[in-house]
């Protein structure tokens, strides 16, 4: 937006600078973009930045962040280099909303078709035993207290377009999420708070790389389980459910308990490095930040150290930050320069420059 930029006083038709671009190493915008429509209108049309080209925004020891739309990345030489090398594509695409949002989401049936077209293209980036994980929020019919099926329709079309196997469904519960949709939850009080997103794990094969016994994937043992392990016995035999529990089934001490597919993460911390960096540099915070714990969980679960993780809808690059922490290589793609600038806060070597 215009208020987020610090522009020079270049005349119409001359190169000009903006704070976000210069801090990412892009010094000037193409003069051809600023036409007789005027500087302020040009900024509004281009979403706050006049440089709409694709290119590298920054790099770290393990990853690269690119400025541009996902369509530009998929047609780039960088994507050609990455073909067949990604162990995981982990991302949260714009949610399937029935109303237009600031970040330019497709709507309704257009959203379903738009997302499905990426499936075969994403598939080309994957290793043979790789995975695609999509986090998708819920949608509501405009002006009505009823849910839309857009998210489910989009999932089914994506699976069909890529001939993908649906490995498992997860639910990510955010205990700190604000009550929404506000009209039906807080005003009329006829619906409950929408406090979760769906996370869909899919793959071109039935048995992609995965291991649920890793530290960070398992959960700590409960006090009762610790007591059982110490005691060394329990009531075995046939249960009312007809499951037969053997005498030693639960006596093996692992790294923790197998986690259920209901995950719980929040992103309410006011002191993480990303938020501190945004405040210090007066940068806009991404309105739909993913909890970093969610990204870390799936990276641990579905990849090994050194393997490549790609996030084509990176936002504030939470996925890249999680991959860097866990020793994985990463690629992130995001069209908004302000969000890319803020995402440098995740990486100490960049945020201290």
Folded structure, characterized:
The chain has 353 residues and is an alpha/beta fold. It contains 14 helices and 11 strands. It has 3 domains: 1-52, no CATH class; 53-218 and 258-351, Rossmann fold (3-Layer(aba) Sandwich); 219-253, no CATH class. 30% of the residues lie in helices and 17% in strands. The strands form 2 sheets. The chain has a 9-stranded mixed sheet, sandwiched between helices. The two termini are 25 Å apart.
Helix/strand structural class: alpha/beta
Alpha plus pi helix count: 14
Assign an overall shape: globular
Cα-to-Cα separation, first versus last residue:
25 Å
* Global mean pLDDT: 82
Strand content: 15-25%
Major β-sheet strand ordering: 1-2-11-10-3-4-6-5-9
Which segments are poorly predicted (pLDDT under 50) over 5 or more consecutive residues? 1-17, 25-50
* Helix content range: 25-40%
Whole-number count of domains: 3
Largest sheet: 9 strands, mixed
- Total strands: the figure is 11
């Amino acid at each position: 937006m215009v208020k987020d930029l610090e522009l020079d006083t270049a005349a119409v038709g001359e190169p000009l600078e903006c704070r976000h671009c210069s801090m990412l190493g892009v010094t000037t915008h193409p003069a051809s973009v600023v036409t007789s429509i005027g500087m302020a209108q040009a900024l509004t049309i281009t979403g706050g930045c006049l440089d709409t080209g694709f290119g590298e925004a920054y790099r770290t020891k393990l990853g690269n962040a690119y400025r541009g739309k996902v369509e530009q990345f998929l047609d780039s030489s960088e994507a050609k280099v990455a073909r067949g090398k990604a162990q995981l594509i982990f991302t949260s695409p714009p949610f399937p909303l029935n109303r237009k949002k600031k970040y330019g989401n497709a709507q309704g049936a257009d959203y379903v078709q738009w997302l499905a077209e990426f499936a075969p293209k994403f598939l080309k980036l994957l290793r043979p035993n790789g995975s695609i994980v999509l986090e998708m929020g819920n949608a509501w019919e405009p002006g009505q207290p009823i849910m839309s099926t857009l998210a489910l329709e989009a999932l089914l079309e994506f699976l069909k377009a890529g001939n993908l196997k649906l490995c498992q469904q997860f639910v990510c519960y955010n205990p700190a999420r604000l009550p929404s949709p506000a009209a039906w939850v807080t005003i009329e009080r006829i619906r409950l708070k929408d406090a979760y997103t769906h996370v869909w794990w899919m793959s071109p094969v039935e048995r992609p790389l995965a291991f649920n016994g890793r530290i960070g994937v398992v959960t700590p043992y409960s006090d009762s389980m610790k007591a059982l392990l110490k005691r060394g016995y329990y009531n075995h035999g046939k249960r009312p459910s007809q499951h037969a529990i053997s005498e030693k089934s639960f006596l093996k001490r692992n790294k923790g308990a197998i986690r259920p597919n209901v995950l719980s993460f929040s992103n309410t911390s006011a002191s993480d490095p990303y938020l501190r960096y945004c405040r210090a540099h007066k940068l806009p915070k991404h309105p739909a930040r993913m909890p970093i714990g969610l990204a870390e969980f799936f990276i641990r679960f579905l990849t090994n150290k050194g393997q490549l993780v790609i996030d084509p809808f990176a936002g504030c690059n939470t996925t890249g930050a999680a991959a860097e922490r866990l020793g994985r290589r990463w690629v992130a793609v995001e069209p908004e320069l302000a969000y890319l600038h803020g995402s440098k806060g995740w990486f100490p070597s960049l945020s201290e420059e």
